[in-house]
Amino acid sequence: MRRKWDARTKARIVLEGLTKGGISELCRTHDLRPGQYYKWRGQFMENCHLIFEKQPGPPTESELAVENEKLKRLVGELTLELNNGKNIR
After folding, report:
1. Beta carbons of 14 and 37 less than 8 angstroms apart
2. pLDDT digit string (tens) for 24-73?
3. Where along the chain do its domains lie?
4. Rounded to whole angstroms, how far apart are CA atoms 6 and 18?
5. What is the pLDDT of residues 78-89, one digit of tens each?
6. What is the reported pTM?
7. How many CB atoms lie within 10 A of CB 10?
8. Smallest Cα–Cα separation from 40: which of 14, 15, 58?
9. How does 41-74 read in b/e, with b if 16+ C-beta sit within 10 Å?
């Protein structure tokens, strides 16, 4: 039967392998195939840099104010275009 490994457990096992070595013993301890460990390690190494990238968070008040002003200008321009189109007819 296949087991489902959660992300935290996978990361902990990979980090243990990277720091302590002894992959064969590690895999025996966790009843894990070495090929599966190396697959997880590859995924880990491929994506570990993402933790240091800025995570998108809620916009700041100043960013919202700037966006609000842009939207107000756009609404005004569109209103003028709409009104000018009605006056031509």
Report:
1. yes
2. 999 999 999 999 999 999 999 999 998 888 777 888 999 999 999 999 99
3. 1-57, 59-89
4. 19
5. 999 899 877 655
6. 0.59
7. 18
8. 14
9. beebeeeeeeeeeeeeeeeeeeeeeeeeeeeeee
